[in-house]
Prior knowledge:
54% helix; 2 domains; 467 residues; 6-stranded mixed sheet; Phosphatase 2c, domain 1; Rhopdopsin 7-helix transmembrane proteins; alpha+beta; 5-stranded antiparallel sheet
Amino acid sequence: MPQLVHPGFELGVLLSGFFFIFLGLTSLAVAVIRRRSGVRILIWIGLWSAMFGFNDLAHSALVRIVWPAATVSLIPNVIALTAYLILPVGTLSFLELSLGKLRRLLQMLIVVDLAVAAAGLYVFFTTGNGEAFRAHNNILAACTTTTLVTVLAVPKLSRRYLVLAGHRVLTIGAILFAIQALYANLAIIFDWHQPVLFSSVGFAMLLLSFAYTAMTLITTNESRLLSIEKELEIARQLQTSILPTRAPDLPGLRIATAYEPMTAVAGDFYDFIPSGDRRLGFIVADVCGHGVPAALIASMIKVAAQSVNGCTDDPSEVLRRLGSILTGHARGQYISAAYLWLDTTTRTARYSAAGHPPLLHWNHTDSTLTRIQSNGLLFGVKPDCEYPTCEIPYCPGDRFLLYTDGVTEPENAAGEPFGDRRLEQLLHEFSTVPASELSQHLLAEVRTWQPTPDAQDDMTLVVIDTL
């Protein structure tokens, strides 16, 4: 039975091993609990620490005594695996803090680390020699440490190649570790005395400085994300405030709307422009793109729509004025739009569009569906475009549908778009249901069609039933 020749050293090894394993498991637990982007560095630090701890325990004589006899032969395997794989795992931790050329350099070092580890482990498992490539491994460790200390110590390099602004703690930990590593190597050459657990203390300083930096980075990013989320919520509320709170109650019409943004804010817009008690204009627009930039352009449409007073019965002029205003401020963004004007006294509709999906007109009398395209150029292409107007007589019981392309473009698992034909089939199928029910049926069908709702476009529907 092996004897503990140096009880103090043996106790230190055990404490060191359990400390690093505990630190590693804690880091992994925090990464699992937080489950946010950016915690990957905690995973690498956790594995890095746990591997060092297991390596310490594998060298302990006491562990060999209490280790099950049937598996004691596995201890050399643990030592070899941790000795060769701890460097690439540690470099992966450093990689999470790097940018640009430094990141590419570290990626190359990791590839070389893994190649050396594979060669060293192959030799170990085939010949039992675990030291064949340890010198190569040590050289790579020295290169990685030198790179880390250099980048941290030179402000110009750290500002350019690190993701974090404040890194004083990490710099101190890295420098102390480098000093310890240098002394340890010189001690081997000149036979100097090394204090008990000297290497463990040096590694602990490096690891704890990494952990501190990682948590600081994660909490900073989370604070920034919370701030962005609050700003997006305010933007969402502001955008919602520019949309109609309810559909107008106009004699001879029943109107239903559906508006579903892909993100907190959207590039879709719709509004109603009244013109007396029996006439109403409907505008639907879709800004190319998503998120805040598209939402800002969409909010501009609300302001631009105020310029169309006095010409609401002329869709061509309405779109021309809107296009003239928006093209000068769109900053390279393109906008599709459609404008429908209804006169319930004469039962006449007028329609014009700017690169928008067609207006769908359901004729109640003969149960036919007509696609009405009266398009000019998208807003943002050039100012002062001409937009043709189409006049459409309608009868009681007819239905009009305005929508954005987020309704027809979503794809199913096979990559097939929902499409115009499917939309038209649904209008046939649900031709007798009220406008409010139709809008909900259409949205439900699109959601069912697309298995990944997070990828869908903004969706807007305006259903108009005539009485």
